[in-house]
User: Which sequence fits this backbone?
């Protein structure tokens, strides 16, 4: 596939012996200038608004910046920045400092549990629904339209809906009570907070998986199923040996995206609990709380959490890619 | 795989699909199996629908504590909450900001993402793989690490509290994913079309604008939808970067509304419903193309 693409511009690569560096640069420029023009806007926007802030953020993690010592303007008075360089102290403090368990590791473990549980639920439920929708069934389109609704309505709206339902005396507890079941304090008790967060996020995230996997299912060649049936494969065997391999490339992409998005899922937890539930905060919302939700705002620690999060994700993604490539899967990147 | 052409995937919704349908051995179990499928799908639909329907229902109750006694709402349903929200709050200002920001992000984002996607789909320039990798990595940036520096850059550029600033910030999150998705979609368009265009004397840009873009409409629709939803529902950046309460987007406005009318949950519910309407409308406009576009994006990464 990657070879054929080059035909689009009629270019081939890699045949001739490599000329010198200057010539190669010049040649590369002539050959690819339109490609560079086309990606230039992205490079500029990402460079200014992502890479530069990232570099600056990394610098902040090496200082003790907070809202009291950064430069700011109050009315006509300019206050000089007075924060200073402290090296890797922030990281050391986060990872090994006193009460590091309460501040970092407990959130870290909860974030891992949260990501694993949410993505597993998203994927399983999404796949199940996609399989059901992929049959010849009356009212298929109708079901699909309703099932994507949680995706269609913005998260901040639906989360408020869930807050109504979960609040003490809301519909869920009323229903549980009428069934004589225990009525947990969804928004106050740590365990149930976490349970509620996973539940709401699952509800929000399933449609994306469902739609993507449904697309993947529909791109599987139907003759493969016929052949399998001809060979006497039962439903489970067809699923195991035709459907799953056919879905592998879609799955590997959506699972990776799902993990990244869930790991960084800000809106659900932030809107469900605000800053009232320190134990239910995943690392992202916790970092936001440190940087913007308390006084004085601790910019340096917040940024350090951000960098740690990024590092975790990058390491994970690299392993994920390597693992996929070992199984001869292409993630096309 | 790469020959999953535009035509086959375009009529995907009508096609009686492959797999379990049909087949001689399956006729007997058909009734039970399809009843079970319907049962599961109905339950799932109810779960998907219920929180939203509940929100709509609660928004009709006139008293602030009605959510605790939903039974009483039936007898005194009213649209008073809606008229109050529309007349006595900044709702329309918020809606205007939200629409400016989301549509701005959609237009700019899709344009940039389309050229980028085309470039990475068709042209093998040096550093192309690294570039794709960077696009993926930008998906991973947590808000916390970028917020402070972004705030400073935007204030240096005098873009704090402006729509343009927010649009640019949202583009930086929406564009990488859209470019990725569109790259996959462009890959499904046969390269012969490009070649034909080149032979007929079009420049690379001409080929792109006149031949490829019209063919890629389903993919563009998905990218547009994604950008719109991202921008419309984003909370963290909007909370931090917008200062003037007339410029709040709906996501921020709803929050300020909550603290302002803390006990008046009926008004909050009404606002939430009003917000959901334009987005859902937009969603159902593009949903036809959703499966097609996402598949192409998904399968090819």
Assistant:
């Amino acid at each position: 596939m990657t070879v054929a693409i080059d035909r689009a511009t009629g270019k081939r690569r890699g045949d001739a012996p490599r000329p010198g560096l200057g010539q190669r640069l010049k040649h590369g420029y002539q050959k690819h200038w339109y490609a560079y023009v086309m990606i230039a806007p992205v490079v500029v926007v990402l460079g200014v608004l992502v890479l530069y802030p990232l570099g600056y953020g990394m610098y902040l993690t090496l200082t003790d910046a907070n809202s009291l010592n950064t430069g700011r303007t109050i009315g006509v008075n300019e206050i000089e920045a007075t924060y200073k360089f402290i090296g890797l102290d922030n990281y050391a403090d986060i990872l090994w400092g006193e009460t590091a368990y309460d501040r970092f590791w407990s959130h870290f473990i909860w974030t891992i549990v949260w990501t694993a549980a949410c993505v597993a639920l998203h994927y399983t439920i999404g796949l199940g629904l996609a399989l059901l929708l992929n049959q010849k069934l009356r009212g298929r389109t109708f079901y699909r339209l309703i099932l994507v609704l949680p995706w269609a309505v913005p998260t901040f709206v639906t989360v408020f809906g869930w807050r109504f339902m979960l609040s003490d005396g809301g519909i869920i507890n009323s229903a549980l009570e009428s069934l004589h079941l225990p009525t947990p304090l969804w928004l106050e008790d740590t365990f149930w907070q976490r349970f509620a967060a996973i539940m709401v996020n699952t509800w929000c995230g399933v449609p994306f998986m469902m739609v993507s996997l449904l697309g993947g299912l529909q791109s599987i060649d139907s003759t493969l199923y016929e052949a399998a049936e001809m060979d006497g494969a039962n439903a489970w065997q067809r699923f195991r040996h035709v459907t799953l391999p056919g879905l592998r490339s879609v799955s590997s992409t959506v699972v990776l995206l799902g993990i990244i998005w869930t790991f960084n899922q800000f809106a659900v937890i932030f809107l469900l609990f605000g800053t009232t539930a320190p134990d239910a905060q995943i690392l992202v919302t916790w970092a936001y709380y440190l940087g913007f939700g308390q006084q004085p705002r601790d910019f340096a620690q917040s940024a350090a959490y951000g960098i740690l999060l990024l590092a975790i994700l990058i390491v994970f993604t690299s392993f994920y890619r390597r693992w996929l490539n070992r199984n001869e899967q292409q993630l096309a990147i | 795989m790469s020959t999953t052409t535009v035509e086959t995937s375009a009529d995907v919704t009508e096609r009686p699909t492959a797999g379990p349908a049909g087949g001689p051995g399956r006729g007997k179990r058909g009734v039970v199996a399809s009843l079970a499928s319907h049962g599961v799908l109905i339950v799932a639909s109810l779960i998907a629908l219920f929180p939203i329907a509940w929100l709509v229902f609660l928004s009709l109750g006139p008293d602030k504590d009605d959510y605790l006694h939903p039974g009483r709402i039936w007898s005194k349903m009213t649209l008073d909450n809606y008229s109050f929200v529309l007349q006595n709050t900044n709702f329309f200002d918020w809606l205007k900001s939200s629409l400016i920001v989301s549509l701005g992000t959609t237009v700019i984002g899709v344009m940039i993402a389309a050229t980028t996607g085309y470039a990475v789909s068709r042209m093998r320039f040096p550093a192309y793989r690294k570039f794709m990798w960077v696009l993926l990595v930008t998906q991973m940036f947590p808000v916390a690490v970028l917020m402070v520096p972004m705030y400073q850059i935007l204030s240096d550029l005098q873009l704090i509290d402006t729509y343009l600033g927010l649009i640019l910030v949202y583009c930086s999150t929406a564009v990488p994913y859209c470019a990725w998705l569109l790259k996959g979609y462009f890959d499904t368009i046969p390269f012969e079309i490009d070649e034909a265009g080149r032979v007929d004397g079009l420049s690379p840009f001409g080929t792109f604008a006149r031949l490829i873009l019209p063919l890629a409409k389903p993919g563009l629709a998905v990218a547009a939808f994604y950008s719109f939803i991202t921008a419309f529902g984003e909370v963290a950046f909007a909370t931090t970067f917008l200062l003037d309460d007339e410029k709040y987007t709906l996501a921020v406005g709803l929050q300020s509304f909550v603290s302002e009318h803390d006990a008046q949950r009926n008004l909050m519910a009404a606002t939430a419903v009003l917000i959901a309407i334009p987005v859902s409308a937009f969603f159902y406009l593009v949903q036809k193309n959703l499966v097609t576009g996402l598949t192409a994006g998904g399968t090819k990464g």
In short: Residues 1-27 of chain B have pLDDT under 50 and may be disordered. Residues 59 and 132 of chain B are 46 Å apart (CA to CA). Chain B is about 70% helix and 0% strand.
